[in-house]
Amino acid sequence: MITELEFKSLAAQGFNRIPLLSEAFADLETPLSLYLKLAGGAKHSFLLESVVGGERFGRYSFIGLPARTLLRASGGVAGPVTEIVTDGEVVERHEGNPLDFIEAYQARFKVALRPGLPRFCGGLAGYFGYDAVRFMEPKLAKTHKPGGLDTPDILLLQTEELAVIDNLSGRLYLIVYANPAESEAYFKAKPRLADLGDKLRFSVTAPPVKRGPSHPVEREFTQDAYLAAVHQSKELIAAGDMMQVQIGQRLKKRYTESPLSLYRALRSLNPSPYMYFYDMGDFQIVGASPEILVRHERTADGDKITIRPLAGTRPRGTSPEHDLGTEADLLSDPKERAEHLMLIDLARNDIGRIAKTGTVKVTEAFVVERYSHVMHIVSNVEGTLKDGMTAIDVLKATFPAGTLTGAPKVHAMELIDQLEPTKRGI
Prior knowledge:
Elements: H1 4-12, E1 18-25, H2 31-38, E2 45-49, E3 60-64, E4 69-74, E5 81-86, E6 89-95, H3 98-106, E7 123-128, E8 154-159, E9 161-166, E10 171-178, H4 185-199, E11 217-219, H5 223-238, E12 244-245, E13 251-253, H6 259-269, E14 274-279, E15 284-289, E16 295-299, E17 302-307, E18 310-315, H7 320-332, H8 334-352, E19 361-370, E20 374-384, H9 391-398, E21 406-407, H10 409-419
Antiparallel strand pairs: 1-10, 2-3, 2-14, 3-9, 4-5, 4-8, 5-6, 7-8, 9-10, 11-13, 12-21, 14-15, 16-17, 17-20, 18-20, 19-20
């Protein structure tokens, strides 16, 4: 932990967020048990977990403790509005493009990052819903579809207290940010860290995983309308209007158990490299994914941008020999190879919009990765970010993933707007 003198020195250099950090061993804990101990399942908290069980394994898991401040944005006929909410009260309200405001908001903070910390160690965490693309792509900006979930298009928690679990070493990092402009900031952050450390000693009980009552599935897309949309899409592809389009539908089902029980069941049934549980207060988000949208990472050679296209799927075999045969079948399937190659080209195009000339490279191609129930074809596309570009520029260039839209991406999204009955939402 830094000393008071070091804290004052950093404050004198203009840093307005300074992390205080403590370490502990957590090799006998799980990220879920630590989330329950530290966040207690409170609103405006989250768990980002790489679950042991998949053959792909992320090094870090992250626990965001309850955030006091959040940013939320939604579009509409009158134009998009972004709000800053602190302790439940709207303290700022802005009209105009939310991405411009988020970028300006981030610039308010000068953070004294410490060497050795993982790539995420605090800041804004949450979601950009699919319809946030209307703040990025002019051709889609004037489309206002009815809402299906009644949630903000963007919701970000300002994470200033968090725990980072190194799944490789079993170490736990507790991080509390202090604002030197606040009175006695250093002396308030120190006991807060100690309090978090004390919570590690207590036992917790997780909500049980049990079979609840079954309720009927509700659809916003009737079967006939959905099949008609698929038929129209196939006709446009055959006519050469586009290469691929992903027509989706939302299935709704009443759920009466604890959201954390649902997360526990999911992490057991489908352990994945990227699992997430967000408690946003009025609603919770539970999910699992084998892939990233994009990664922006600072390196000695510049800011590296990475996309890992994932497309081409087969179920896992019943034995290692069965897996090998299935893998060979997957890699030799012309349809799967054509689709995956299309997504590689889309990733190269997206990164090429923001990368320095000559730096876009495919560093892995047509590698099969195995997960708990399926195997996928995966490739890796990288580039070096142009000088002056920001994380928001990276998001604008790559959002949403081509696996959710089709190609050409913007044209596919225009067709999705025509055919799907409601906003996609989160």
